[in-house]
Recover the amino acids of this structure.
């Protein structure tokens, strides 16, 4: 067990970790959607770029991506993109983790879109919905049930990845822990072991929290699918007589 | 391989010999019986041998030792020095080799320990299966970085225990990915159709025969692609050991060069490129394996 002061420190670190996770998650979901849909585009160059992004984001190690994003990129591209200069490590780290999550998430979204029966898309073409409306109102709402469980696992992977931000000098739960080590050393190496057991438990609880949130979302979604009509009150304006490009 | 060729030829030759005496036999009756033993099929044996040989070479031969350092560095006005970049390449490969070696040795632990964990998890005895399930869940949902720190201080706090940093890296990677592997094994075992289990009971096979001749041979093909994906994932996590335990992998190389020359851009981009050059082909191979197994399954 630790002193209350130490728990307060760890609490601050945990909040920072959750913030980094939130940033990475927001960017990750956005990239997943854009790239996942892009991988199924009719345009060849869109498919190519999306494929390149996915291969890059999934192929590179997240810790190396963090080093590149936090240390190399601001020096290399700082002149071209002034925004990058003077960003905090937490922001750049969330950026790197978001890119990482986007690569994996895009494949989840691509797979789930492919898993939706073709008749759904064909029916929405028959109803003269444009490609955006097809995705927004027909395909993605159904795909969401397939997306949620693997996305929850991916979010836990990214939560584990946030600990790496401390390695490149950011403040998070892991950095808060390392700041405690000096004071714990007075109690010998056993004290540090106890400290790390506490941190492991905190990460475990955070992961279970993420898990529970995704379970709740799944249950809410299932309930929405059981109540009919699902699209009550949604009015979709399909342009009559417009050319279809499907 | 050598055994397979005469066997196939015989099957092809036979109908042509019979063709003279018995013309009534239709030609399409010809059936080349393919051996189902995987070690008698060259298309399986050759890649498996190559992979096993490559991985065991990697596991046995350590990287040449020596510290990382550069002969020269470009001036401050150069934002990206290409000759410097290529000058660092051989040393980066040395670091990459160490990282790959740690991954392979760690994964060897993971693959075996994962099987043990999967078996304990399946145990009928709840006193065994519940703690195992909790342990798997706990290790899976905590960062490997923290686990490495934890292992490091644990080794330090135990007087009689002294381990090399690289050994701690093998062990942590091994235990972390054993939990993933155990889930993969569990899914593979569960994917064996129920009829097979019932047949094994009906034939009164003892548990050892049931597992080694019925269940595991059918579970392995389903598990292999997942294990391959985790091998790639473990490779991506191995550089964390450089940051925590100072093992001489790619990230250690980049950090050393950065501290020496104060030029972070080239080494970090170089290790990024080096990483992609290994992990992309590896991921591609795993995908091919997956497609191949799906094809064989029909």
């Amino acid at each position: 067990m630790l002193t209350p002061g130490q728990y307060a420190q760890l609490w601050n670190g945990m909040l920072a970790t959750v913030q980094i996770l939130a940033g990475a998650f927001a960017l990750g979901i956005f990239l997943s959607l854009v790239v996942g849909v892009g991988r199924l585009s009719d345009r060849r160059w869109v498919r190519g770029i999306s494929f390149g992004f996915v291969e890059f984001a999934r192929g590179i190690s997240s810790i190396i991506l963090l080093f590149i994003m936090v240390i190399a990129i601001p020096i290399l591209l700082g002149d071209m993109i002034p925004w990058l200069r003077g960003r905090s490590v937490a922001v750049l780290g969330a950026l790197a983790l978001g890119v990482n999550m986007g690569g994996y998430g895009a494949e989840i979204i691509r797979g789930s879109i492919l898993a939706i029966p073709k008749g759904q898309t064909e029916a929405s073409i028959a109803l003269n919905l444009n490609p955006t409306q097809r995705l927004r109102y027909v395909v993605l709402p159904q795909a969401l049930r397939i997306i949620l469980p693997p996305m929850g696992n991916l979010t836990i992977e990214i939560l584990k990845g946030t600990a790496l931000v401390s390695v490149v000098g950011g403040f998070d739960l892991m950095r808060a822990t390392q700041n405690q080590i000096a004071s714990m050393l007075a109690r010998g190496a056993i004290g540090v072991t106890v400290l790390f057991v506490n941190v492991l438990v905190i990460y475990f609880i955070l992961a279970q929290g993420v898990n529970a949130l995704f379970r709740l979302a799944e249950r809410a979604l299932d309930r929405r699918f059981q109540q009919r009509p699902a699209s009550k009150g949604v009015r979709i304006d399909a342009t009559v007589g417009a050319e279809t490009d499907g | 391989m050598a055994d397979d060729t005469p066997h196939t030829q015989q099957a092809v030759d036979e109908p042509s010999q019979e063709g003279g005496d018995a013309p009534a036999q239709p030609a399409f009756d010809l059936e080349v019986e393919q051996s189902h033993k995987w070690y008698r099929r060259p298309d399986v044996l050759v890649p498996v041998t190559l992979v096993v040989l490559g991985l065991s070479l990697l596991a046995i031969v350590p990287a040449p030792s020596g510290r990382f350092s550069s002969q020269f560095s470009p001036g401050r006005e150069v934002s990206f020095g290409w000759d410097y970049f290529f000058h660092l390449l051989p040393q980066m490969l040395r670091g990459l080799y160490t990282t790959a070696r740690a991954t392979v040795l760690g994964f060897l632990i993971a693959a075996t320990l994962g099987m043990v964990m999967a078996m304990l998890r399946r145990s009928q005895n709840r006193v065994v299966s519940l703690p195992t399930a909790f342990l798997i869940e706990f290790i899976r949902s905590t960062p490997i970085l923290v686990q490495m720190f934890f292992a490091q201080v644990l080794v330090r706090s135990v007087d009689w225990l002294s381990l090399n940093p690289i050994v701690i890296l093998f062990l942590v990677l091994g235990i972390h990915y054993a939990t993933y592997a155990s889930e993969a094994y569990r899914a593979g075992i569960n994917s064996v159709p129920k009829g097979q289990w019932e047949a094994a009971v009906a034939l009164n096979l003892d548990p050892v025969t049931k597992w080694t001749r019925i269940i595991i041979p059918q579970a392995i093909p389903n598990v292999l692609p997942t294990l391959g994906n985790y091998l790639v994932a473990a490779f991506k996590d191995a550089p964390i050991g450089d940051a925590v335990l100072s093992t001489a992998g790619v990230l250690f190389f980049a950090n050393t060069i950065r501290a020496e020359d104060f030029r972070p851009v080239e080494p970090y981009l170089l290790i990024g490129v080096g990483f992609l050059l290994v992990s992309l082909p590896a991921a591609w191979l795993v995908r091919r394996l997956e497609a191949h197994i799906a094809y064989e399954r029909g």
Summary: The domain at 4-226 of chain A is CATH 1.10.3720.10 (MetI-like fold). Chain A has eight helices and no strands. The helical segments of chain A are 4-38, 44-59, 62-77, 89-115, 118-126, 131-162, 173-185, 189-226.
